[in-house]
């Protein structure tokens, strides 16, 4: 199911990328056939190690949040952040766009895509993107509903199998929802990549630059607030 989801991600991102980049319409069957013919190896590889890299990156961000300014955690937090930033450049879901468009390998596509984001200063925007979290929570919600319905039916009909039925229906509902939500994830990823390749294109407005400036402004305000708080505490 992970491979099916990423197959949908590559296919749809190819279609959306062509729309954003040049206004060209690509047939879904053609894009799906090209993805299956030229990119299946990269899709399978990405389906295996990109979730692992995502867990490592999420753990690193969690360590940073927990550590705060504590000196005893600063070293481990910096180490985790450095490792996570290195790994995300070699495997990320935005690389699937170039896998579909250019038939690149997943590692090369990921590194090329991340380098474009870094060159345009889009890393902060990418890191604050909540698309993946929204899709994950939607999958959990759909899986929970399926588990509730399936478990209730099993309790009435086959009580001894209620646990197994609930587990299987949760997994089915979760993955089916993730496959359906791949359309949204692919569209947003294609928009980011198409903008990063040609930010001066007439196809784009000022949405991304405005968000980047807003994020930078918010970070400056937070830094100033921390400085004022530290100054007040030192005075006390």
TrEMBL record:
It is found in: Cell membrane; Membrane. InterPro entries: Choline_transptr-like. Keywords: Membrane, Transmembrane, Transmembrane helix. Its main location: membrane. It holds the Pfam family Choline_transpo. GO terms for molecular function: transmembrane transporter activity. The chain crosses the membrane at residues 134-156, 168-194. It comes from the Eukaryota. GO terms for cellular component: plasma membrane. It is a multi-pass membrane protein. Choline transporter. Belongs to the CTL (choline transporter-like) family. This is Choline transporter-like protein.
